[in-house]
Description:
five-stranded mixed sheet, about 525 residues, about 20% strand, alpha/beta, seven-stranded mixed sheet, homodimer
Amino acid sequence: MTLTGELFIGAERVPAATGSMKAFSPATGELIEPEFAFGGPAEVDRALRLADDAYDSYSHTGLAERAAFLDLIADKLEAVKDELATRTSLETGLPAAQFEGEVVRTAAVFRKFATVVRQGRFLQTAIDPAQPDRLPTPRMDHRLQKVALGPVAIFGASNFPISYSVAGGDTASALAAGCPVVVKAHNAHPGASEIQGRVIQEAVAEAGLHPGVFSLVRGPGNEIGEALVDHPLVRAVTFTGSEAGGMALYRRAQRRPDLIPVFTEMTSVNPTFVLPGALAARGAEIGTALVQRGMYNVGQACLKPAILLAVDGPGYAELRDAAAAEVKKWDARPMLTPGIHDTYARSVQRHQDHGATTLGHGAAPAGDTDGQALLLEVTGEQLLAEPTLREEVFGPTLLLVKLTSEKELLEAARAFRGQLSATLHADAADRTTTEQLLPILERRTGRIVFNAFSIPQEISYASTHGGPFPATSDSRFTSVGMGAIERFVRPVTYQNFPDELLPEPLRETNPLDLWRLVDGELTRR
Amino acid sequence: MTLTGELFIGAERVPAATGSMKAFSPATGELIEPEFAFGGPAEVDRALRLADDAYDSYSHTGLAERAAFLDLIADKLEAVKDELATRTSLETGLPAAQFEGEVVRTAAVFRKFATVVRQGRFLQTAIDPAQPDRLPTPRMDHRLQKVALGPVAIFGASNFPISYSVAGGDTASALAAGCPVVVKAHNAHPGASEIQGRVIQEAVAEAGLHPGVFSLVRGPGNEIGEALVDHPLVRAVTFTGSEAGGMALYRRAQRRPDLIPVFTEMTSVNPTFVLPGALAARGAEIGTALVQRGMYNVGQACLKPAILLAVDGPGYAELRDAAAAEVKKWDARPMLTPGIHDTYARSVQRHQDHGATTLGHGAAPAGDTDGQALLLEVTGEQLLAEPTLREEVFGPTLLLVKLTSEKELLEAARAFRGQLSATLHADAADRTTTEQLLPILERRTGRIVFNAFSIPQEISYASTHGGPFPATSDSRFTSVGMGAIERFVRPVTYQNFPDELLPEPLRETNPLDLWRLVDGELTRR
Lengths: 525, 525
C-alpha cells in the first residue's frame, strides 16, 4: 500500500491539521518519506466523539461477530506482513526478519483474543437465582456480567512497533472487551503505525461495524497525548514506556474531574538470581545465555534481564568470563531513536559514576545513534548502597552483581522495587535459599522464572506481564496474555429482570453455551 | 465484655498515646463511657510493621485453614450479637433489632467468604503446560495464580457500623484474599468498633495466626487516616463514605512515591425511573414503597432511592400523593452524628434554594440531631439545568422529578453521573422506552433493578456494589458480594517451575481439587 501519512478518524483519512513530520531512519540517520500528518485536540475530540457514539453498538456486538472481527484483523495483518516488516525495519534499524516474526505473533494474539471472546469467560457471568421462600427475606434473581468500560486511549511503545503498538496487545484486548479504541501513534515508527491502522480501519469497515470503533491520531510533543488523557469521553488509558513518561501521563489523568483507570507499564530490571549450586554447575552457560537474551532488540526490551546477582564462589568467574566473551561478539547497533540513544549514554555514565566497572564491551559505535554492548559489574555492597544501580538502563548494557553471601543475596532481593519478572537459577542443593528467596520475589514481581530466562514472553492464559509499582501502575492487571482483557471491563448486575430483557449471556437457557457461576458453582447448563 | 477503649496493635491492647474521646449518643445528645484511646502515626507504624511481618505466613495459609479462621470470626460475631447490637444502637440512635439483623448478616458474609476461600476460584489458577515440540519455539510450562496484595488499610463507614465497619465486608474480603488488615475505627461508633475488633483479635489468636493479621487504630481528625494512607507498607486502601472524604483520601494516596490501589465507595442517588405503563398501573404502590425504602436507616444509606423520575400523566398524582402520605408517617429520628445532621440540613436548604418544592414531610424534629423526613419535587427542566439537584442528600429526603415526556426522561437519565444502582419500573407497554433506557443506565451504574428497589443489598456471587465515578473510584471492582475479594489480589506467573516448588493450587495433581484453566479450558483435573 502507498503510505499517505494521514490520520484515521473513524472511516475518514484526515490530512495534517497542525503540522507534519517525517520518519527517521536510525540506520542511515536520514528522514524517510512521506510526510505524516499531525493532529491536535480537535482531531482527538472528533475521534472520541465517534468512539463514544460507537460504544453502544460495538460493546453489544454478539460474541461471534466480535470474534470474527478480531480474526479479520489477524488475516489482514498477515496479508501485509512483508510490507509491514520492511517498513518497520526501515524505521527502527532492526532486521526485517525480526518483524516478520512479530507480525505473525501479533496476528496470533488477535486470533487468541477471538477465542477468548468466543469462550466468553471474560464476561464472568454469575447467576444467583431467585429464592422466593428464603427467610427472613426472599432473594430476588441477580445476574452479573462484565461490560466494556467505553472508549480507550492507547499509547503505543517505541520499542516493539507492532506487538506493543497500533495493532498490539492493548488494542487487541480492548477491542475484544468491546471497547472502541483511539490509538496515539508513536512518532518513532509512523509508517509502521499507518500500515497497522489501515488494516484495522479496513477491518472495521468490512465487518460492518460503526466506524468510531477505531481511530489513529498523531501529534507533536505532549499536546495530543494530554488531549487524549484529558478528554471527558475517554474511559480508560493504557501506556507502555518509560517510568517518567508513564508517571507524567498517570499524574495528568489524576487531574481529571472524574477518575478513570490508567494502566501504565513502565520499568523493570528483571533481576536474575543465580544460586551457588547452579552457578557451580553451569556458570558459563548462564553467562552466555544472559548476554544473548539481554542483547535482544539492542537491549530495548521491558523483559531484558538487566541485572544478574550471584555469590562469588565456584562458577562465578566462569559466568563472568563467558558473559564478557559473549558481549564482545555484539556489534554496536542503531537504537530506536536519537533520544533513546542519548538517555542510554547518560544512564551508562551514571552507572559508571556510581562505581560500576566494565567487564567487557562490543565493537565501538559507528553511527551516531548506535548503542554499544556493555557488561558492567558492581559489588552487592554497591548495589545496596546506591538505588540508581538497581534502576533500568534502557539499551544493551547488563550488570553483574558480585555478592559475598547468600544472606547478602536475599538482602539485595529485598532492595528491588516492583518488577515485571524475576529469574532464579537453582539446583537441588540450593533448596534452602530457594525457599527463602521465592516469597521475596513473589512480593515484588508478576512472574518468576525458574532455570530459564523471561524473554521472549509467552502470550497465553497463564501469562502475566505486570507487577507491583513501578513495573506497572496497578499490579492487579496484566498487559500481555489473555488476562489483559480484564483491564477494560466492569461488572453490572441485572436484578429481577424478565428473561427477554437480559443480555444474551445471562438468559435462562444459556443460549451461548457459556460457563456460568450459578449459585456459586461453575456450570455450563 | 467490658469495653476498655484501647487500640489493638496485633495481639496487644494499647492505651491512649495522643488523647482520647467518648462516644456520642445521638438519641440523648450525651457522651457515653468509657474513654476511647487515640493513637497517632507511631501506632499506625507499629500496626503496619506487624501486618507486613504477618504477610508472608498469612498470605500463604492453606485455603482450609484460612476458611476456618473466617468461620471462627463468624461464630464469635454471633456470640456477641446482643451486646454488639445494644452498643451500636446506643451509639447510633437506631433500633437494636436492626443491628441484631446486621450482626447475623455480617457473620453470614464471613461464612460466605470462607466458602469462597475453600472453592479457591478467586485464585484464578491457569496452567499452560509445556509444549517442548512447538514450532518455531518450544513453550515452557506457565502457571498463574492470584496472590494477596499485602497489608490493607480499611476505613469503615459511619452509616452501617457493623456491615461496613471493623468486621464489615472490606475486612472479610481482604482477610479472605490473604491480606493482613489495619482498620481505622470510625469515631461515630467506637464501642461497636471495639467489640468487633476484639472478636477478630481473639479469632487471630485462637487460630494460631501471626498477630499482625489484624490491628484496630483510632485517632482524632485526619492525622491517623493520613498516616495510614501514607505508610510505605500499605498495599491497598478501602474507604466507604462521602465523595469529599473519599476524594481527599484518594488524592492523598496519589502523593505517595509509589502507586497503590485505593478503592473508595462514595456517592450515589440511585435514580428510579417509572415508565408510563407502570406509573398508570401502580403509581401509588411505587410511591409508598419509595418512601418506605428511602427512610431506611434515616435515609443514611448508599442505596437510598434518592431520586424518582416519572412523566406527568396517568398515575403521577397517585404516586406523588401516596409518597406524600407515607412520608408524613415518618417521625424525625436522630441522625448518626451532629456533623451528618448539619450537612443534611444544608443539603436540604440547597435543594430548596434551587427551587425544589415540598410535597410533604414527617413530624418536626424534637432533638438537635433529628432528621426530618421530607419529600421534594422538581421539574425535569430544573433537574437538567442544575447539577446539584442530581447530587446526594445524605438523610431522609427524597426527590420526585416530574417530566414532560419520555424524551426528557431519557435526557435526564443521560445527565446523571456514575451510580451504584438504578431502578426501572416498567410494564410490557413500556418496552420501547425500556430498550432505550437500559443502555443508558448500563453505562452509568453497577446494578440495574427491574420492578423492585435496590435496597436491601443482596450479598452473593452476582452482587455488584460499585459503578462508574463518583459512585466509586474504580468501576471494575465491587465492595459488596463475593467479587469484593478481587480488589486485593494480583496475578503471579510461575514459569518452568519444578512441581515441588509450585504453590499447592498449581501443582500437577491438583491436590486442592480446584477448577483450573488448563490450556484455556476449565477443568477440575
